[in-house]
Design brief:
about 40% helix; alpha+beta; about 230 residues; two-stranded antiparallel sheet
């Protein structure tokens, strides 16, 4: 796995985005987007979220390890599109497929307040930042009790007027497509979820919560099957 030390790299851009961040380049010309977060806990939270997205098969930027625990780094890629508003109908369908993953990880910032958190690289729709998933909000505040074992995000990401680009992206989904999105998560073995979290230094409590959130999503599928019987 790539390990970078920003002190040994050349900085090629200044601060960017809602968190202090910059672009760095190594001796081989590879560039990395590096965020310096308020604490190692916040940075670890984002790395765990990215691992869970990858476990589910949901496309993200390629995260790399840094020598500094408060940093989060991704490989810089050329984006063909940088906003929900730019997505074609087919790209929207790609993005909608991952609603269950966004909801499971409580990523309230899945679309971005201005639509800036979904982009396209090499023809594939990506979530560009998962810093708003799990235990922390996108700006770094802890979610506390708002991040529980029930996955209300399945509905809120499709209907919350305070999250307009999420509603624009996920609101048109019918129940059949929502069920398909849920099944992406419910297919993940519990043991794989626990291992992914523990491997990155996450707690048993977080692993148990994510498994419970998956179970809540599965119960929604079961309830729908019973109602249709």
């Amino acid at each position: 796995m790539t390990l970078i030390d920003t002190a040994a790299l050349r900085q090629v851009s200044g601060p960017m985005g809602s968190n202090p961040a910059a672009v760095f380049e190594d001796a081989q010309g590879r560039r990395f987007y590096v965020k310096s977060l308020e604490s190692p806990l916040y940075a670890r939270n984002e790395r765990i979220a990215a691992r869970l997205y990858q476990l589910a098969g949901a496309p993200t930027l390629n995260y790399v390890e840094t020598t500094r625990p408060h940093q989060v780094a991704t490989e810089l890629v050329r984006l063909e599109k940088k906003n929900v508003a730019q997505l074609s109908p087919e790209e929207i369908r790609q993005a909608q497929h991952w609603l269950g993953v966004h909801a499971w990880t409580a990523n309230w910032d899945a679309a971005g307040f201005l639509g800036e958190n979904q982009g396209v690289a090499a023809g594939r729709v990506l979530t560009l930042d998962v810093g708003g998933a799990l235990e922390y909000r996108a700006m770094g505040n802890q979610k506390g009790r708002a991040f529980g074992t029930q996955v209300g995000e399945l509905d809120r990401l499709r209907s919350d007027p305070n999250n307009p680009f999420a509603v624009r992206l996920f609101g048109p989904m019918d129940e059949a497509r929502v069920r398909q999105a849920i099944q992406v998560v419910t297919a993940i073995p519990d043991a794989h979820i626990r291992q992914a979290i523990l491997d990155l230094g996450g707690s048993e409590a977080l692993a148990a919560k994510m498994i419970a959130r998956k179970a809540h999503m599965a119960s929604r599928l079961l309830a729908e099957c019973v109602s249709l019987a």
